[in-house]
């Protein structure tokens, strides 16, 4: 038992209050892997041990315990009540606290690392492991909301309810922290240094920059920096996070958003402003064109300079469009984004059209008379989810604007037949513009289309 005692001592695990074996030298946390490289337990089995049912008005908060880089990750998982006030109330403590919400790309579902939660070894992905290692404070606990941990992903009923609450959870967060990953190249570091050291002051000079001034700020009066800046920005914006579907809602809801790459921190506005500067000088400065051509193709350059456009459009559209048109717009713009579950192509966009969404059931009499939010239900097939959304959009919008979507219609999804009038939102070609005539000849009820 010497190895076991050494392992548990190194991890500094504590017994639960009242544990009859507390302090016993041979009965300390036997669920901890005894050596590096030992096989981790099955995540599904550990989830059954870790989670207990919560109410629809509750969520969970991960309390990440302090530690040094490389130490075993340890945390508590506390049930929290969602209130109208800022933050959440930790249920068992009856204490209100602020928290941060993590936004990151899940990556492949390979659970190769571990997080000790409430003394249970819970397997996690490598991406989440490194995010937590960088987020952990050396001296104080950090209160976090992380969807992969705070939602029981193996309970479809809970997941359906919690996904309906995600917009509220991200809105109530003191801050949303984006994890891009570790710093990979020197270009990443150069770009992050530029963003953090130059833009916070200079972006306040004027919101509308003339070409000459934009070139000066973008290059810091030194054109030889163009190449490194473009390469670094391209490297950052090519991270998986920027292509995630859920990013649209998380950015939309965030009161304050901080981007983290390794231990470097960049404000959302700083990254957006850097993209704006480069967009301003692109095509107008030969030195810029020459430097950019050496590190990125013109097509890819345009893509990276347009990053975030869909999010900005969503923020603008929210105040201008009906719920039906807004949902359809967000579905179209997110068509090229990545998600592991096709149902999330609908569920991940609902929050931006419904700030009051509960994820429980369709409201029979919504205030605007236009139809309540489609229910979130992960037990339904992808075909059913797509058809429900299409039907709701046409009923709410009272027009056939849906049929103008630049997407494939009908076909087969997971062995089921998609109705001919329903877009396959997995295959959206480009952003759809609403035609003026959709408010004319097709502006009528459309029950007869649902055949």
TrEMBL record:
Q: Which InterPro entries match?
A: HET (IPR010730), HetReg/Transcr_Mod (IPR052895)
Residue ranges of the Heterokaryon incompatibility domain?
99-250
What PANTHER family has UniProt attached to this entry? ANKYRIN REPEAT DOMAIN-CONTAINING PROTEIN 39 HOMOLOG-RELATED, HETEROKARYON INCOMPATIBILITY DOMAIN-CONTAINING PROTEIN
What is this protein's name?
Answer: Uu.00g001280.m01.CDS01
Natural source organism: Anthostomella pinea
């Amino acid at each position: 038992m010497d190895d076991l005692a050494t392992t548990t001592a190194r991890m500094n695990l504590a017994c639960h209050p009242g544990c009859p074996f507390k302090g016993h030298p041979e009965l300390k946390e036997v669920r901890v892997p005894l050596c590096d490289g030992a096989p981790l337990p099955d995540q599904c089995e550990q989830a059954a041990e870790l989670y207990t049912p919560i109410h629809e008005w509750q969520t969970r908060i991960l309390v990440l315990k302090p530690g040094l880089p490389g130490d075993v990750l340890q945390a508590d998982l506390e049930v929290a009540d969602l209130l109208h006030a800022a933050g959440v109330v930790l249920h068992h403590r009856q204490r209100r606290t602020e928290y941060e919400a993590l936004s990151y790309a899940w990556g492949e579902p390979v659970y190769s690392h571990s997080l000790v939660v409430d003394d249970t070894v819970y397997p996690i992905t490598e991406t989440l492991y490194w995010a937590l290692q960088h987020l952990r404070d050396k001296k104080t606990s950090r209160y976090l909301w992380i969807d992969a941990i705070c939602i029981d992903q193996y309970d479809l009923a809970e997941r359906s309810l919690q996904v309906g609450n995600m917009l509220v959870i991200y809105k109530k967060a003191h801050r949303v922290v984006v994890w891009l990953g570790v710093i990979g190249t020197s270009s990443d570091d150069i770009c992050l240094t530029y963003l953090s050291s130059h833009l916070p002051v200079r972006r306040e000079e004027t919101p509308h920059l003339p070409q000459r001034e934009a070139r000066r700020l973008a290059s810091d009066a030194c054109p030889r920096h163009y190449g490194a800046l473009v390469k670094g920005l391209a490297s950052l914006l090519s991270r998986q996070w920027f292509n995630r579907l859920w990013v649209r809602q998380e950015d939309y809801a965030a009161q304050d958003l901080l981007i983290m790459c390794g231990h470097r921190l960049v404000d959302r506005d700083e990254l957006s402003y850097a993209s704006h500067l480069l967009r301003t000088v692109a095509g107008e400065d030969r030195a810029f064109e020459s430097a950019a051509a050496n590190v990125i193709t013109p097509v890819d350059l345009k893509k990276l300079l347009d990053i975030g456009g869909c999010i900005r459009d969503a923020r603008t559209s929210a105040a201008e469009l009906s719920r039906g048109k807004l949902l359809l717009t967000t579905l179209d713009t997110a068509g090229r984004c990545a998600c592991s579950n096709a149902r999330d192509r609908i569920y991940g966009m609902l929050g931006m059209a419904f700030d009051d969404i509960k994820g429980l059931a369709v409201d029979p009499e919504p205030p605007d008379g236009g139809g309540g939010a489609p229910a979130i239900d992960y037990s339904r097939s992808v075909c059913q989810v797509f058809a429900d959304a299409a039907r709701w959009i046409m009923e709410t919008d009272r027009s056939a604007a849906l049929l103008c979507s630049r997407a494939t219609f009908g076909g087969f999804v997971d062995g089921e037949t998609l109705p001919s009038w329903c877009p396959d939102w997995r295959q959206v070609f480009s952003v759809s513009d609403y035609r003026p005539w959709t408010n004319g000849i097709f502006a009528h009820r459309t029950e007869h289309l649902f055949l």
